[in-house]
Amino acid sequence: MFDVRDDTAFVRFDRVQKSYDGVSLVVKDLNLDIARGEFMTMLGPSGSGKTTCLMMLAGFETATSGDILLGGKPINNIPPHKRGIGMVFQNYALFPHMTVGENLSFPLEVRGLGRSDREAKVKRALDMVQMGAFAGRRPAQLSGGQQQRIALARALVFEPDLVLMDEPLGALDKNLRERMQYEIKHIHESLGVTVVYVTHDQTEALTMSDKVAVFDDGKIQQLAPPDILYEEPSNAFVAAFIGENNTLRGQVVRIEGDVCTVKLSEGGGEVKALRVNVEGEGAQTTLSLRPERVMIAGGDSHMDNVFDAQVQELIYLGDHIRVRVQVAGNDEFIVKVPNSSSGRKVRVGDALRLGWAMQDCRALDPS
Amino acid sequence: MAQADAGGVPLETGRSGKPASEKRQKLVTADGTPLKRALQRAERRRVLAALLLVAPLLVFLLTVFIFPIGQMMWRSVDNPQVVNALPNTLQALQGWDGRELPDERVFAALRDDFLADAERPRREQTIGPLGIRLNYELSAARGAISRTARQVPQFEEPYKEAFLDAHRLWGDPALWRVIQREGRPLTMSYYVAALDREFDEFGNIVQRDENRRIYVSLYGRTLALSVGITFLCFLLGFPIAYYMSILPMRQANLLMICVLLPFWTSLLVRTTAWIVLLQQQGVVNTLLVSVGLIGDDNRLSLIYNMTGTIIAMTHILLPFMVLPLYSVMRTIPPSYMRAAKSLGATPTTAFRRVYFPQTLPGIGAGAVLVFIISIGYYITPALVGGQSGRMISNEIARHMQQSLNWGLAAALGTMLLVGVLVLYWLYQRLVGAESLKLG
C-alpha cells in the first residue's frame, strides 16, 4: 500500500476520473503529486477540469474513479468537514450575518476551542492579513480587497496543513490583485502551508507558484515550475496558453540529434528548430517562438534562422513596441522591440530582416 | 434677509445682480439665481412627478381604505341616539343619584320628548333608534319604548304613574341608569361589551356572567389559531422552499406552480373539495376506515370544527409563507454551506449556524404575512369552521349582518386592528421590520 512516493507526496491524485453525466469525462486520468509546503497552481481555461479537481480535493465532488490521497491516506469517503482543509472561495463566502471576528472564530468554535484560545488565534490571523482593527465589522462593510483578506485569514485560522484557493482574486481590480498575489505568496512562505491554487490567469500562476499544472480538456498538459513552463513548453497548447507566442506550421524534413529542420507550410522556406515534441521525419509540427526572442538582424549577425519581414502594424506599449510583421506568409507574427534611445525606429511598411536562434524555436506537436 | 430671499421675494429682484455682488458668500448659479432657489425649483419638478405617480393610488386608498377605517373607528364610540331623542329628559336627569326612581319632573320631560318626536317627519324620528340603542344595553328596552310611544299622547298627570302603567320597565332604575350613562355623544359601552364586561348598578365596569362571555376567549382562540397556522405553514413551507431553491430554475418553476395552485382555484371550489375530502363520510375517513386505522363508528370529525379551520387555512395561506422564503433562499449561494463545511462544521451545524440565520428575513416576512392574513380571516372559518372553528371576524360579520349592532362590530374590529398594529410594532422592536424581505 505505501510505496516510496507517498513520503514525498502530501496530496496525491491517483488515476482520478470524474464524470457528471456518465457520457463524457470532465477529468481524464489525473495523476498529480503535490509535496508538503508546495504552492501548486492549477491553471487552465474554463471548463478544463481544474475547479472540479479542487472540489474533489475539498470533498464537495466525489471522484468517479481513482483515489485522492492526503498524507498517504485515501480521503474519497471522508466528508468535507472532517478533511481539515482550509478553503478560499471565489466570492469569499464570508457569512454575512456574522462579524469578521465571528467569521474567523467559527472554525475554532466548531472544533471546540476555548474562548481565550479562540480570541488569541483570531487576533493573530487578523494581524497576519493586516486587518486587526476590523474584527467588529460585518463583511458587507468591507471593500473587496478587505473581504479577500478576511477570507484568507478564515481559511488559515484553524491552522490547516492544506489550503485550497478557487480563483480568489478574480473579483479584484488589477492593482489590488497584484498586491494580493505578493501577500498570499508571502503568507505561504512564512507559514509553510501547502497551497493548491486554481486560476485561469497565467500571470497569477507564474508569479505565485512553485509548480503549475496546466489543464486542458480534463488532462494536465504540463506540470512544471513557472520558468520552465514559459521557456520550455512541452506542447502547442501550453506554448499558446502561457505568454505571448508566435506560431509557425510546417513539416519536419530532417532530424539531426536535437535539431530538426522544418519546411514551413506557407512556402516560406526552412527553419531550424529545437526538437521537443516531434514524432519523426515527415511529421507535421507547430513551431513556437517567443516574440522577445526574435531579433531585428543587422548586416553582420549570424543567426540560425534569418527571414525577410514587412512591418504591418505598430502598437506602442511604453517600455516596448509590439511590431506585427509578415513573415513567410504569416502576418500574425509579433516582434517585441525594446523602446531604447539607441534602438532603431521602425515604421509601418518597412522591410526588416528578422533572426532567431535555433534553440528558441521549439518544434512541438501539430495542433 | 437671506431667508426672505429664498422664501418669498419674486425671482426678478434676485436677478437684478445687486444683492449678489454685495454678499459674495451667497452661492448663485451661472445666471445669478440663488443656488438654493434654483435647487428648490429643480427638485419641485421631481416631487411633483412623484406625487402625480402616487396620486391615483393615494386617492383610491383614501376613499376606500383610510376613510372607511376612520368611519369604523368613529362608529365604535359614536353615540347620538339618546342625546337626539331625549334632550329634555337628560336635562331633568342631571343630578339624579341613580338609586331611587326619578321624580315626576323627569317623567314630564320624558313625555315632552316623546311628543316632540311624534311631531317630527317620519324620517327624522329618533324614538326608533333610541329603542334599538337602549336594547343593546338592556334587552327589554326596545319593546318598552315602542309600546310607550304609542300611548304617550293619551297620558295624563301624574305622568310617573302613566309611564309605569304603560310598561313596568320604567319602574326599573337600571333603565334610567342606562339613559343617564348613554346620554352623552360619545360612549365606551361598545368597548366594554367587546371585552366581555358590563356596568353594574354603581356604574363600575365588571366582568359579565361566565356564560355570557364570548369575545375575549374568541380573541384568544383567533390568536392561538393564527399562531398555530403560521407555525404549520412554516413547518410545511420551509422544506419545500429549500428544495425549490436548490433545484434548477425550470423544475423550481414547476414546483412553484403546484404551490401557487391554491391561489388559482376559487375559494368555493377549494372549500367544496375540502368538504368532500374531510367530512365524516368523506374520502379521508373512508380511506382510514377501509385501511383499518379507525373503526366505522368513530370516524374522525375533520370539518365543521377547529380542525377544519386549521387544515383549510394552512392550505390556503401556505403560498404566503413559501414565496418569501423561496425568494430569500434563492439568493443564498451554496458556497456558504460549503465554506462552513470546509471550516469543519458538520452539515447540521452548518445549516443551523450559517444557512438558517440567513433565511430569517424570509421567515419573518412569511410569518408576518400569514399571521396578519389569518388573524382577520373570515370566509374559510365561516364555511368549514363550524362552532369551534369560528374566529373573531365571524363574530364581527354576525354583528354587521344579523344583529345589526354596528357599534359593537366596529369596536371589535377596531380592537382587532389595534391588536395587529401592536403585534407588528412588537415585531419591529424585536426583529426589525427592515429585515423583512417580501419580494
Task: Chart the SSEs and their pairings.
The complex is a heterodimer of chains A (367) and B (439).
Chain A: E1 9-18, E2 27-35, E3 39-43, H1 50-58, E4 65-70, E5 73-74, E6 85-88, H2 100-109, H3 115-128, H4 144-156, E7 162-166, H5 174-191, E8 194-199, H6 202-208, E9 211-216, E10 219-224, H7 226-231, H8 236-241, E11 246-256, E12 259-264, E13 270-275, E14 284-289, E15 295-296, E16 305-316, E17 320-327, E18 330-338, E19 351-356, E20 361-364
Parallel strand pairs in A: 3-8, 3-9, 6-7, 7-8, 13-20
Antiparallel strand pairs in A: 1-2, 1-4, 4-5, 9-10, 11-12, 11-14, 12-13, 14-20, 15-19, 16-17, 16-19, 17-18
Helix pairs in contact in A: 2-3, 2-4, 3-4
Chain B: H1 2-7, H2 11-15, H3 18-22, H4 35-75, H5 81-85, H6 87-93, H7 104-119, H8 127-137, H9 141-151, H10 159-166, H11 173-181, H12 189-194, E1 197-199, E2 205-207, H13 215-246, H14 249-264, H15 267-278, H16 283-291, H17 306-330, H18 335-342, H19 347-375, H20 379-384, H21 392-401, H22 406-430
Antiparallel strand pairs in B: 1-2
Helix pairs in contact in B: 4-22, 6-7, 8-9, 13-14, 13-17, 13-19, 14-17, 17-19, 18-19, 21-22
Please give a structural write-up.
The complex is a heterodimer of chains A (367) and B (439). Chain A has helices at residues 50-58, 100-109, 115-128, 144-156, 174-191, 202-208, 226-231, 236-241, and strands spanning 9-18, 27-35, 39-43, 65-70, 73-74, 85-88, 162-166, 194-199, 211-216, 219-224, 246-256, 259-264, 270-275, 284-289, 295-296, 305-316, 320-327, 330-338, 351-356, 361-364. By secondary structure, chain A is α+β, with helices and mostly antiparallel strands. A 6-stranded mixed sheet of chain A has the order 6-7-8-3-9-10, with helices on both faces. A 5-stranded mixed β-barrel of chain A has the order 11-12-13-20-14. The longest helix of chain A has 18 residues, at 174-191. The model of chain A is unreliable at 1-6 (pLDDT under 50). With 439 residues, chain B is mainly α. Chain B has 3 domains: 2-75, no CATH class; 81-187, no CATH class; 215-435, MetI-like (MetI-like fold, Orthogonal Bundle). Chain B contains 22 helices and 2 strands. In chain B, a hairpin with a 5-residue loop joins strand 1 and strand 2. The radius of gyration of chain B is 33 Å and the shape is extended. The interface between A and B is medium-sized, with 27 and 19 residues.
